[in-house]
Amino acid sequence: MNMKEFASLVGLSSYTLRYYEKIGLLKNIQRNSIGHRVYSSKDVQWVAFIKRLKETAMPLDDILAYATLRETGPQTALERQRLLEHHQKHLKQHISQQKMHLAALEEKINLYKANKVR
Predict the structure, then answer these.
(1) Reported pTM
(2) pLDDT tens per residue, range 2-23
(3) In CATH, what number is assigned to the domain containing residue 15?
């Protein structure tokens, strides 16, 4: 699929996709006979994973490190696993903190509903 179709499918701008290619997150993108990018279903899956990591607040440098390890090959599987486990630990801490914030917010809202706060 071409850049426009791919950008629409993955929910990213063509500018972002070109940036990802420039910094090395997207590599080996095929080109057609006139030089336009042609994306595959594997590219869709990879970008979906990148987006998921970004949405969970993984720093771009860590995503790049993961991408570099991924490209190096299967011998880096343990390193990639460790990187994801490290991120998982931080994500769980963040979720726990957000749950505490939500509980405090709900408590305050309930005070307003009970007309105990003016």
Answers:
(1) 0.83
(2) 999 999 999 999 999 999 999 9
(3) 1.10.1660.10
